[in-house]
Amino acid sequence: MTRKVGKANHGVMTLDIEYVRAQFPAFAEPDLQGLAFFENAGGSYTCRQVLNRFERFYRSRKVQPYGPYAASRLGGEEMDEARLRLSAMLGVEGDELSFGPSTTQNTYVLAQAFRQMISPGQAIVVTNQDHEANSGPWRRLEQDGIEIREWKVDPATGSLNIEDLKALLDSDVRLVCFPHCSNVVGEINPVSKITAIAHAAGAFACVDGVSYAPHGFPDVGALGPDIYLFSAYKTFGPHQGIMVVRRALADLLPNQAHYFNADSRYKKFTPAGPDHAQVAACAGMADYVDQLAEHHGAPNKSAVERASFVHDLMRAREVALLQPLLDAVGGRNDLRLLGPDRADLRAPTVALDLGRPAEPVAAQLAQKGIMAGGGDFYAVRLLEAMGIDPRSGVLRLSFTHYTTEEEIAALVDALDAVL
């Protein structure tokens, strides 16, 4: 039975799952009936608020924005609205957030800016826990004389040890890059603590939040990193990368856009014109958060407070659903669960090393109505570090707050059948 909105025993509001699923047209699509979606880490369903804005833009705003006529003016206003409302939710200033075609491409642009700012012989710390998006672009700077130091995971657990990071830091390190959580191991890293350690060493901090943000928009301002990156298509929106670069760093980094955009913080890291319709549609993500907050009784808070309120609702929902899944797979001797076996320590992205190719097992699950994925998920370095052949990959089961108890039960039953 799906849960209604109300108070849990510990006094925390529970998520109204019927209301939530009503916001996602995918759940009413005939072609998706009877199927349980467990590859959300690769991209979530899109909420109706985003779809409505996207359709409206293409229907009545599909002109060059920021012009003097109504359609153009309104298009530009909607683009600005998306940037300003999302930045407010994330606890940062409006000119500290910009859009790009993907997180990988945004990171590449930032890497080029750092290449111009720092000197040969200086160093950047990267991890082998990251998706390649927050690793490869930085590692390429080694060709320009930048030293790359690797913060390595524990091969048994996939975790990053803080003491190992401290051993890598000295006055030569200018940047520390790490994930909020891994897209395979799923463990949530202590962003504020790592950022503080980086800052104390005189380095900036760059956080890949792609695998965390779908489970609740973070208060980036409170967390403290200089760069925070995530992908809107994984946070119920369109295929855009969202990039926060705090003012102190943005003003130091050289312009990567047209020369006449050099003085605009939110334009200087976007070499090409953004996708107008997709940027405008991103405001629908803020609509969704605001409507969830209002529905659950928090209408009068600030934008960042509303986002934090919804974040906690989502996390509580996901933790409750995740623990039974972890218990089910953790008790098996025919697979290896990657990452923590405690739901409160991780995102609901569960990777299983089966000791054999994972894609055929994902195909078997599909026949049983479970949509999941098998592969390396662009985390080749992590799999190799943990002794897993990337060609075999892992089976990844990922969900978000709109998943139901019935879908978790169906997944567990399907796993029992195919494994």
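the 2nd protein, sequnce then structure:
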Amino acid sequence: MADADDMMLAAPPKPAIDGSSAAAILLMLLDESEAATILKHLGPEEVRGLAKAMFDTANASEAQIEQALDRFVVRSRDVSALAIGADTRIRTVINQAVGNVRADNILAAVAPQRSAASLEMLRWMDVDAISGLLASEHPQVGALILSVLVPDIAARAIETLDELLQADLVLRAAQLTSVPAAAIEDLEAVLASANVDGQRVAKQAIGGPSDVAKIMKKMPKQLSERTIRALKKTDKLLAQAIEEEMFIFENLRDLDKKSLGTVLRSVDAAELAIALKGTDEEMVDLCLATMSKRASETIRDEMAEMTMVKRTDVDEAQKAIMLVVRQMAASGEIMIAGAGDDYV
């Protein structure tokens, strides 16, 4: 009969537990008010994820609970005592040293940026309520609202608006580069919120063509095309920048083999060699696999002969190829998969 040591060696290992499950278990071990206090500091997606994990771990075994506690203890050892309440202590010290006005100026320049309470509130709002705000408020405030939303929510919120307002909001959001404190204050007033800790709000980098492109990709094809056409009448270069961001060179991976081959046979071989020089080997193999052996070998030889290639040259070559892609998609020669069952 096996002795105790043999039995211990034969015992199965503890079941693995991921970070979300461990966090959910810890929250369920806390008092309800304590758990609620923690959740108040999280965003909507994090709360939703933890809520699901809490349901999934409601029947956690003793081994899983022990593992969650072990993870917490190990991670806690890595947290410096200096980090606890550091923000409040630093602000208090600077305020006492140089006064509130000068402290505000110093901290606005050096303190880590923090999202305004109003921006966090927007992420919890119902889509219909957001659409109502976009329709009733000044377009510049609407552009700010649009830029801080998750792209799919923004796309749904703008979908029901007047065509001219849609184009105006998209234009203004694409032109945003940073947001001054005054604009945040306007948004605060709109949302009837004044919870910015009395601190000056630093400018935050949001919006721009890249963020708007993400929103446009979530919109129905007909609506996104109509909005781009309207935008071109106001700012052709900006509309082009958004189109370029909607489908970049790396998205060639999403094309089926036939469509990819159709595109690559229509572009200049030398230009393709430069464009591929700025990608990984997997992308190179994917593209060249759609071509004849002789053509792929020619391009590989051209790439091998290149030494240093400027990033700007690579970008220009990739943009030229993507222009061909958009032209072929517009003519119906290829289909580019978009959100859901739509195509753009």
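The first helix runs from residue 4 to 10. Residues 85 and 91 are 10 Å apart (CA to CA).
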